[in-house]
Design a protein that fits this description.
Blueprint (H helix, E strand, L loop, with lengths): L3 E5 L5 H14 L11 H12 L4 E6 L2 E10 L9 E8 L8 H16 L3 E7 L3 H9 L3 E12 L2 E11 L20 H11 L6
Parallel strand pairs: 4-5
Antiparallel strand pairs: 1-2, 2-3, 3-4, 5-7, 6-7
Helix pairs in contact: 3-5
């Protein structure tokens, strides 16, 4: 039976994750970038993000099958309890539950860190992504009309939101991801979600 792992990504995973991401940039409107980032830039993104938030990679028999991460929603102080999520799966590994497994792990980790809300921006049209995020508990918050231009066309960006906890009381500062990255609860969570990925 194939071996599935989900773990925090490192710079050593960058080349394989970039190989997954590059076609999303060059061939689709899922990413708003025009050119795939250079390897050094991608490593910088991983390291910068992982200093505070989870960036996870799923491997099946050692092969990078998909990855996902959370990033700051905004940089100003009042937004410090909100994050944005992104997820990318290699075409050969679609429909195995990888995206859902990574997302559930990220949700649990963000909850432990003390985050309240998660946002995702979806470049329209992308009904598949809207459906997936709805199934993962997101709801549509609004639409930025004609706010993204790619491949010769202006496109709407649909913003969806998922709440992790009630908005009551005064929030306390969030816990940086490295503080819980290597503890037993995180290891158990990632192992559990890896076990939900279909390998047939």
């Amino acid at each position: 039976m194939p071996t599935v792992t989900i773990r925090p990504a490192t710079a050593a995973d960058a080349a394989e994750m970039l190989a997954i991401y590059a076609p999303y940039v060059s061939e689709t409107t899922i990413s708003s970038e025009y050119e795939p980032p250079a390897h050094a830039e991608f490593v910088h993104r991983i390291e910068t993000c992982s200093a505070r938030l989870p960036w996870l990679i799923c491997r099946i028999d050692g092969v990078a099958a998909g990855y996902g991460y959370a990033a700051p929603h905004r940089t100003r102080a009042g937004y410090q309890w909100s994050a944005e999520t992104s997820i990318y799966v290699a075409p050969a590994f679609h429909r195995r539950g990888i995206a859902a497994a990574i997302y559930r792990a990220i949700f649990a980790l963000l909850t432990r860190q003390g985050y309240y809300d998660i946002f995702v921006g979806i470049n329209a049209p992308n009904e598949r992504s809207v459906h997936f995020h709805t199934a993962m508990g997101y709801t549509i918050s609004g639409v930025y009309r004609a706010s993204m231009f790619k491949f010769g066309q202006w496109r709407d960006v649909i913003w969806m939101k998922k709440s992790l906890r009630p908005h009551t009381g005064t929030p306390v500062p969030t816990i940086p991801f490295p503080a819980l990255r290597d503890d037993g609860e995180t290891a158990a969570l990632l192992e559990k979600e890896a076990g939900t990925v279909r390998t047939d």
